[in-house]
Amino acid sequence: MTQNVENLTKAVPPGVTEEGLEKALDAFVAALGAEKVASDAETLRAYRDPYQISTWTTNLAAAVVKPTSTEEVQEIVRLANEHRIPLWPIGRGKNNSYGGPAPQVNGSIIVSFESMNQVLEINEELGYAMVEPGVSWIDLYEAIETGGHDLVASIVDVGWGGVVSNTLDHGLTYMPYSIDQASHCGMEVVLPDGDLIRTGMGAMEGNKTWPLYKRGLGPTSTELFMQSNYGIVTKMGYWLMPKPEVYMPLWLRSWNDDDIGPIVDALRELMLDGTIDMRPQFSNTLIMASMMSSRKDWWDGDGPMPEHIIDKIAKELNLGRWMMRFALYGDEAVVDHRYAKLKKRFESISGVEVTGEKYEKSEWKNLQNPHEQIQIGIPNLDLYKMASWYGGEEGGHVDFSPVIPMTTTDTLAALSFMKEMVQEAGLDHMAGLLPINARSTTFINVLAFDTKDEDQTRRAYEVAKKMVAIAGKKGYGEYRAHLSFMDLAADQFGFNNHSQRRFNETIKDVLDPNGILAPGKSGIWPARLRNGNNA
Ligand SMILES: Cc1cc2nc3c(=O)[nH]c(=O)nc-3n(C[C@H](O)[C@H](O)[C@H](O)COP(=O)(O)OP(=O)(O)OC[C@H]3O[C@@H](n4cnc5c(N)ncnc54)[C@H](O)[C@@H]3O)c2cc1C
Fold this sequence. Notes:
Elements: H1 18-32, E1 37-38, H2 41-45, E2 61-65, H3 70-83, E3 87-90, E4 108-112, E5 119-123, E6 128-131, H4 137-146, E7 151-152, H5 163-168, E8 184-190, E9 196-198, E10 232-239, E11 241-242, E12 246-254, H6 260-272, E13 281-284, H7 285-290, H8 307-316, E14 322-330, H9 332-347, E15 352-356, E16 359-360, H10 370-374, E17 395-400, E18 403-405, H11 408-424, E19 430-435, E20 440-450, H12 454-473, H13 486-491, H14 495-511
Parallel strand pairs: 2-4, 3-4
Antiparallel strand pairs: 1-2, 5-6, 6-10, 7-11, 8-9, 8-10, 12-14, 12-15, 12-16, 13-14, 13-19, 17-20, 18-20, 19-20
Helix pairs in contact: 1-3, 6-11, 11-12
The protein binds flavin-adenine dinucleotide.
């Protein structure tokens, strides 16, 4: 295989010659038209991991194809089988901090859905949208607002990502339907052999409950297409919530670094009894500060930022040492009751304060705080500033995100080893809890670096890998893994001699005997590229 970063068109897939790749590209051009196929170095630069050092020679695509219909996706899959070319589907290609748009295997052809970006239906009565895989959060918001619908979509922090792609990677949004990543319902999928299926009730011709009821008859395959490489999703249902009478964004500040335990206990209680019915973000000072300022505004020294500087930031930006953003939605009387209850519970912890203000629908568009916009489904790009903590425009980060039980014991145990490891690597510890549901939470560690500083970048990747392995030994698995340590993250799921991997790869070999679809995604390799035979 040739890997030449100056001429990215030379990245060829394992087991394929340069001539074989050229022949395949000619076939893609003949089938789709030249305007939908690109393999020049300039275009491909945009499909690299934006946080990777530019001289690194992994995760290089050979070409990008941009289908405009499901039939074209089927044709792409057929040609990939014929020429044994790996495909890597992306929605908006913004999976930054987990690898961006880049493929796992060098020489893959990226299937980009940027031209399949239609909101196909918004159903006001039943509260759902049916979307194509290139629809961004911004597109969906605009379609809802332009159509004058009394509905709102639960969205992510940075609005340029895709509804389908983010959902497929188990992405986290923040409104009530986001709990347990439960907004999606019904998928249409092109299988690796080109066949087309619809999951759940979609398997029945004319069944109107496809985007309404999550199951069908017999096993439901929807979840099998998430974080996997068993199919390419070409349509998906996404539930929309009726706009509530009142929206009340809330802020909790804690000035004592050690209060994280009691706050987590209170949060769990309030989520278990339904008082808090959405996904809070509970972040340390540095994560919050990174969305509002740059590191050099405070301190430009090497090594982890000293505690007294963090205290200064906490005070000057009025963040506290831990800050929770969360919200209430509903009828005013219900919101008032819940607010009084949660305020009393949280403020029973000494030094903790909770504040918030209620807004009616007509006021939402005037909200200025990007966090408060996001929690009511108004997308923006403001929080992307976080990526420039070190290195400004050329800053980046890899995320290590294990899931832990939402208890004091587990929170403190995880915090202690993760903080120590990050600081030992000479990096600032930027971390936050994003509950999955009332019982479990992701503990996101943002390992930030300056991509101009190769040593620092390497340290961030290396410590992330070490954390994956150590967390695995402690029984904490990742909710989502970066390309650079997907295999390692999957290795941690070792119950009964890796029976889950054997199960996943058995399915893979049946569905995708030529191993063309997203080889290596979530550590699932097709037979011909298994056991390290993929370079
Ligand atoms: C500052 C910052 C903030 C972030 N905030 C959040 C957040 O709030 N919530 C969150 O979840 N993430 C967050 N992220 C992580 C990530 O950037 C987002 O999840 C982003 O939206 C993912 O990009 P995308 O939707 O364009 O996915 P893509 O890059 O298009 O796709 C992601 C993956 O999904 C799969 N895929 C995509 N399309 C298909 C398809 N049609 N069929 C089959 N498989 C497919 C592929 O495996 C692909 O690699 C954040 C990152 C940064 C840097």
